[in-house]
Write a structure and sequence with these properties.
With 307 residues, this protein is α/β, with parallel strands linked by helices. The protein contains nine helices and ten strands. The termini are far apart. The chain has helices at 3-28, 48-58, 123-133, 156-159, 162-178, 191-201, 223-226, 251-257, 291-303; strands spanning 74-79, 85-91, 98-103, 112-113, 116-117, 136-144, 183-188, 206-212, 233-238, 263-268. Helices cover 34% and strands 19% of the residues.
Length: 307
């Protein structure tokens, strides 16, 4: 037997193992993508049990207070560059030619149980099926996984900032992979600031912005009047909105402050007697009792600008 050949056979596995170890060590020092680690996650605060029983007792008109995840809806998770995930509850009905991205007010923390939308009782979650009847897809956006606590993303300074912008861009990209049509951004109450942050991204697929009860009359909301919207802007306001951050008496001034060549107020009236505070989900601020009429009117106005 050739002794040299026999030595090479013994050494080869040892050399291979050493090279492999060196490769693994080098890989450990390479920059890792943001999604390499598990996303940052905090416990979800769900206030449905604390809030809904009282509202249900007061709900003499039998107005729908929430709408759980429906047939045809899917929840998908979006990873963002911040190593957090954002849940999006989506439905694209047959024949839908416009997608509506719903940016929530309040804390923006949805009621989600076992990866399914449960009892989110604010204006947009409880009204999303009215969009489907108008042949529009809906994309309901949750707070990011690192801000699912009691305060959520109600801080307008954070909503105005770069972390939220990064999350929103990732959400828009993920929606674009699922729906190729034009998008409309609909921001309610505190969601107005999130809407303005989307406008700062200048996303080409966004063709209109729709505010409803925009929370503009408080500190931290300067982005609303600083950003260039570039596309038509609609402001939906209830004439009896008495929320201190979106009082109807301030709406005309808010509209005039917006940087858009096409801007319009749509006034809504009527509804049921409020069973929450002025800024709450069951008051004129959130179109309580006229949800369907409000969404139908939104869809009609949107189609005047988006084709």
């Amino acid at each position: 037997m050739n002794i040299l050949s026999h030595s090479r056979q013994r050494v080869a596995p040892t050399v291979a193992a050493a090279l492999c170890a060196i490769g693994l060590l080098a890989q450990a020092f390479l920059p890792q993508p943001a999604w390499a680690a598990d996303p940052v996650q905090v416990s979800r605060y769900d206030d449905a049990d604390a809030y809904l029983p009282t509202a249900e007792r007061k709900n003499r008109d039998g107005v729908r207070l929430f709408l759980r995840q429906q047939e045809g809806e899917q929840l998908f998770k979006v990873m963002t560059p911040r190593n957090v995930s954002v849940d999006v509850v989506a439905r694209i009905p047959e024949g839908a030619d416009i997608g509506v991205v719903l940016l929530l007010g309040g804390t923006s923390v949805l009621s989600i149980v076992n990866d399914r939308l449960d009892r989110s009782f604010s204006f947009q979650p409880r009204s999303r099926d009215y969009w489907w009847a108008n042949k529009m897809a809906t994309f309901l956006v949750d707070a990011p996984s690192d801000r699912l606590g009691k305060d959520g993303i109600q801080d307008p300074w954070w909503r105005s900032g770069p972390e939220h912008a990064a999350d929103l861009q990732a959400v828009l990209d993920a929606i674009g992979q699922r729906f190729p049509g034009p998008l409309v951004i609909q921001g309610h109450s505190n969601g107005a600031v999130s809407l303005a942050n989307v406008a700062s991204l200048k996303a080409p697929q966004v063709k209109a912005y729709v505010f409803s009860g925009p929370a503009h009359y408080k500190a931290g909301t300067r982005i609303l009047t600083e950003v260039d919207y570039r596309v038509p802007v609609l402001v939906f306001q209830h004439r009896k909105d008495a929320c201190s951050a979106s009082d109807s008496g301030q709406t005309e001034g808010f509209l005039q402050s917006l940087k858009s060549d096409t801007r319009q107020i749509v006034w809504m009236e009527g509804g049921s007697a409020p069973i929450s505070g002025n800024c709450g989900p069951f008051a004129p601020h959130s179109f309580f009792g006229i949800e369907k009429q409000t969404i139908d009117r939104m869809a009609t106005e949107i189609r005047k600008f988006v084709h």
